[in-house]
């Protein structure tokens, strides 16, 4: 049984994790992941009844991102969320829990990532992509795959080049500071 001295830091880390998750949501909104694979203990039937749309791929059920249960910066099925969602901790949460960085430093990193994500979504809109459904990288790939006439669409070429740079930098940020290997 942990003593009071060790329980207090754990409780503080848990509270910090909760605040940071609410401020972020990139693991739910399609920014970090394409899908969430259900685990053996998850009930596909129960999750479907809660409003999740599942896709079956290679004999496994997946929730396609963005998660339909993620509404208003919160999980609407938090108490019944899938096991992967229960267990996932991004690198920022892990670093705060380990005492490597402060909650404020993690919050600043999250703000930076969210601003970059918003910039990318703004470039999507400038390039005519307004469907907010689907993972960020899928939407990006669709835009990049569209052929452009450099002479007729000079502005689009500039925005596309900016989007490519922004996306490369953003993916590097997600890999180094958020995704867990």
If you had to describe this structure to a student in words, what would you say it looks like?
The longest helix has 24 residues, at 103-126. The chain is mainly alpha-helical and 181 residues long. A 3-stranded antiparallel beta sheet has the order 1-3-2. It has 7 helices and 5 strands. The chain is 54% helix and 9% strand. Strand 4 (70-71) and strand 5 (74-75) form a beta hairpin.
Structural class: mainly alpha
End-to-end CA span: 31 Å
Count of helix runs: 7
- Residue windows where pLDDT falls under 50 for at least 5 positions: none
Shape: globular
The largest pleated sheet is described as:
3 strands, antiparallel
Mean of residue pLDDT values:
89
Query: What is the element string, with H for helices and E for strands?
Result: HEHEEEEHHHHH
Strand content: 5-15%
How many E-type strands?
A: 5
Rg (CA only) = 19 Å
Strand order of the largest sheet: 1-3-2
């Amino acid at each position: 049984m942990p003593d009071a001295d060790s329980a207090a830091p754990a409780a503080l880390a848990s509270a910090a994790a909760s605040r940071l998750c609410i401020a972020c949501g990139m693991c739910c909104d399609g920014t970090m992941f394409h899908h969430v694979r259900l685990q053996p203990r998850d009930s596909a039937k129960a999750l479907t009844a809660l409003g999740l749309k599942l896709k079956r791929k290679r004999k496994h059920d997946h929730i396609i991102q963005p998660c339909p249960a993620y509404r208003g910066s919160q999980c609407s099925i938090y108490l019944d969320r899938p096991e992967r969602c229960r267990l996932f901790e991004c690198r920022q949460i892990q670093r705060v829990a380990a005492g490597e960085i402060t909650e404020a430093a993690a919050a600043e990193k999250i703000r930076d990532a969210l601003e970059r994500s918003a910039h990318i979504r703004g470039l999507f809109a400038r390039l005519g992509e307004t469907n907010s459904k689907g993972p960020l990288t899928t939407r990006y790939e669709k835009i990049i795959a569209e052929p452009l006439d450099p002479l007729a669409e000079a502005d689009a070429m500039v925005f596309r080049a900016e989007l490519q740079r922004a996306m490369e930098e953003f993916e590097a940020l997600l890999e180094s500071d958020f995704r867990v290997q």
